[in-house]
Amino acid sequence: MISSATLTLSNIPHAPSPTTVSALSEPKSTPSSPAVSEPSSPTEPQPRRLKSSPQLNRWSRARAIRSGRKLGRPVQRPADEMSFSNSSLGVIIDNNNSDGSEVQTPSPRGDDGECVTDVTTAGGKSIYMVSDGTGWTAEHSVNAALGQFEHCLVDRACAVNTHLFSGIDDVDRLMEIIGQAAKEGAMVVYTLADPSIAETARQACELWGVTSLDVLGPITESIASHLGVSPSGLPRWAPGRKVSLGEDYFRRIEAIEFTIKQDDGALPQNLHNADIVLAGVSRTGKTPLSIYLAQKGYKVANVPIVMNIELPKSLFEVDPEKVFALTINPIVLQTIRRARAKSLGFSDDIRSNYCEMDHVKLELEFAGKIFQQNPIWPVIEVTGKAIEETAAIVLRLYHDRKNRCSMPRISRRY
Question: Which fold has domain 247-402?
Answer without folding.
Answer: Rossmann fold (3.40.50)
